[in-house]
Amino acid sequence: MGSFLSEENRSFIRELAEKWGFHRISYDDRILFDRFRENICFADLTFSLCTAWDFAFGYCIRHFGDSAVITGCGIDGIVSCCLLPAEDCCIDSIIGELLNAFGSYGYGLKFEYITEEQLVLFENSRYKTAISYDIDYSDYIYRTEDFVNLSGSANKGKRNELRVFRENNSGAVFKECRPLDKYLEDIDEVFSGWCSSRKCSDCRFGCEKTAINALFQVYDPDRFCTGIVYIGERPVSFAVEEKINSRYVCCHFQKNIRPISGVTYFLHYSLCGLHMDIPYLNWAEDMGIEGIRRNKSKYHPCELRHKYTVRVLPK
Q1: Is this prediction's pTM over 0.90?
Q2: Domains in the chain, start-ordered, CATH in brackets?
Q3: Which residue of 5, 6, 82, 296 has the lowest C-beta tally within 10 Å?
């Protein structure tokens, strides 16, 4: 799957840019995203992922006073909005103008990736809304110190997983990717191995290789933590994480060259050692895939962070 953008959606997004004050996201917008960093908990609303996945979703952005709105095509094939609200966000004014823009082209208006804390904006709005979430796209949140804690009976499974992995792979080592350029070929080797056992259609959001290559174009070593696991001299697993603010580290990409029992936890256990000062790890959603759900659940998340969808209802 290469893109969720139909020709109709591409045309509408162009109209938003030409007539309604939006513009395609560029590197210069990083400063704008930084203004909202401390209030973001979902990786989906970071500058880095909007840049990485722009080819699939066609993101645009616009100021509304001190707030901002991102538009793009959702995974349901419908153009939607994401809100980056300022403290004094005037939601009714934003909704009113967006209703005019979307309505003039026959589109309904919905907001995605709304946090629970932001719902009050819509609940207090003069516009009627319908609020929902999909558990398949809720993010797994872990306390960093709990994720690496191996003591006590509750963490017996993690201790055994690390022990068995180390026993079966005595030459396994973790390396932080600094500088990143030195490790790009090894990351590509792991990615190619992962791809070789799959069809392109298995990538639900579009080509993940295309996305990670775009992310590496805006890679900031002060914000990102990337690591690789080697068995012998061969790279077998990597992950790219980002410190999105003082509270959350988000995992953007993680791939194994082939199924290797215990390598995923060994990788992330090692990566956490690079950001123990950040209290929470966001390990993204499971997309309703049972194997991913079982794997993420067994490490004891402290919360499932729901991404709410707010639909503005017709009057």
Answers
A1: yes
A2: 7-137+307-312 (3.40.630.30), 139-284 (3.40.630.30)
A3: 6
